[in-house]
Amino acid sequence: MSPQKIIIDTDPGIDDVLAILLAFSSLPEELEVLLISVTYGNIDLQNCLRNVISLFYYVEKEIAWRESIGRNPGFETLRNSKPVVAVGTEHPLTDNMMMADFYGKLACGMNLTKSSPWFQTDEMDLHPRLTPAETWQRVFEVAQKSSAPEQGLIAEEMNKTTSLFIRSETPAHLEILKLLRDNEPNSITIVAIGPMTNLALAAAEDPETFLKVKEIVVMGGNIDQAGKVGYQPPSHLKQVPNIEEPPFRLIKQAPSPIRDSLNIRNQTAPIADFNTYADTVAAARVYALTSPKPHATMPPTTPSPLNQKEGVSPAPLLPSYPESLSKQLNVTLFPLDITEKHMLTRGELEASLKPQQAAKSPLAEWVLAFMSSSFEKVKSLNPEISGDALSLQLHDPMTIWYCMDNENPNWNIVEGEDLRVETTGQWTKGMLVTGQRNRKQKQDDDASEAPGNTDGWLTSGAGNRLNRCVGSPGQDIFGQLLLKRVFGS
Fold it and tell me: Superkingdom of this entry's organism (predicted)?
């Protein structure tokens, strides 16, 4: 059986890293990871890149450790084929980055301490508009000059000629297009587990090449479930007096009970997930390609391309898609509604990894370090839960599980839903909107839907066509499956 070729577009936080580890631990006949496309996310792009380099460092050490004690080294997919690592965008298509150093230590809503080898953002100055080559160089220079041991590991990994990845200085969205051109149509799946800016740029650059993708599997969106950290009434917050409002306000509207609650809980919006909220225009542009009439569901503004060098005239606005395209994009969405039900408990994690940590497994020690601090954050937000029952939601890894086993009949996928991204609302920005009024649809030739035409919801031939996962082969088994694949236990 030929493996499913995948591109992972990621803003490496905790569950992103677990997803990448799962992909690397798949069998060669299941997956081939062609590209790790890095984008900004909860932290800036340079730290996202550094996290990817850290991941490769610890995987390489883990393979060597396993071989030294006579164990199967694992990571067959990674050892079988080195992926390219490419640097993507630093900012959303519109708006300024809402992320900050504080939020960077809360990757995917989970706390990472300042002393963790995962994040050391105090030594990293932000330099917007860097080229990919400059970003690679900046990460190396900071690591090389630093006295912190963790930074030394980064410099060591970047100096190697035998690394487990191939470094690219081509912008990530162009690397995506290159791979789609160089491979057979419908042979590559893109796994999008961060803001979708890289994908939107690739689609704008060359829509027909972008449409050669087999499927885009997205972790993002929410239908009935609120943001990753659900809204809590003030009475709940009073039970946790030790939680202080972060020094950086994520929500910048005028003071109100909702805004104060969101800031305290470090939640970006009442009803939007982070990945969609981080670049709503990018998500809307990508999802528009699922429509029979892409122009109808495009966002109302078309932003200029990013990463313009100082002193260089602005480039033209991102173009609209051609009136006629060869096909519609195939998107399968994994929203919070399904991903939040798939969890890994602290008891499961420690039972699996503590013995390996005692045996000096580099990867087990590293994963336990950042996962332990994450469980402590969950405990602070949910004081009624403690001990082994504490759990983390496996949002991003679910997309990889689906790619590894998408022919399993137990996946329940609802096909062709008209889901649209709200790009401009004060409180609803980032939400996925569905038509809920019980009114008769018009025939396709009755009206031509256009942005702002509210009647267009009633036109059967318009609207987006997204597939949505509503059920998996087993929400109670996934945590153990992930641990067994990555750690062999």
Answer: Eukaryota
Number of alpha carbons in the 13 Å side-chain half-sphere of residue 186: 4
For residues 134 and 251, membership in a common domain is answered with: no
Same domain, 175 and 101: yes
125 plus 256 within the same structural domain: no
145 phi, psi to nearest 5 deg: -85, -15
Q: How many residues does the chain have?
A: 489
Token digits of residue 117: 């080898």
Per-residue pLDDT of the chain (489 residues; tens, 9 = 90+): 789 999 999 999 899 999 999 999 999 999 999 999 999 987 889 999 999 999 999 999 999 999 999 999 999 999 999 999 999 998 898 865 554 333 333 333 232 333 334 333 334 444 457 899 999 999 999 888 888 887 888 888 998 888 999 999 999 999 999 999 999 999 999 999 999 999 999 999 999 999 999 999 999 998 886 554 333 343 333 333 343 444 434 444 555 555 555 554 445 567 788 899 999 999 999 999 999 999 888 988 655 555 555 555 555 568 899 989 999 999 999 999 999 999 999 999 999 999 999 999 999 999 999 898 888 877 777 778 878 888 999 999 999 999 999 999 999 999 999 999 999 887 788 999 886 555 555 555 544 555 555 555 556 677 899 999 999 999 999 999 999 999 986
What b/e sequence results for 266-288 when a residue is b if at least 16 CB atoms lie within 10 Å of its CB, and e otherwise?
Answer: bbbbbbbbbbbbbbbbbbbbbbb
Q: Distance between CA atoms of 27 and 61, rounded to whole angstroms?
A: 20
Q: Which of 306, 307, 288 is nearest to 297 (CA)?
A: 288
Give me the DSSP letters along 87-143: E--SS-SSS-----HHHHTTGGG----TTSSS--GGG----TT--HHHHHHHHHHHH
Q: Which domain holds residue 291?
A: 4-224+276-307+318-411+469-487
| pTM beyond 0.90 | no
- 399 with 283, same domain: the answer is yes
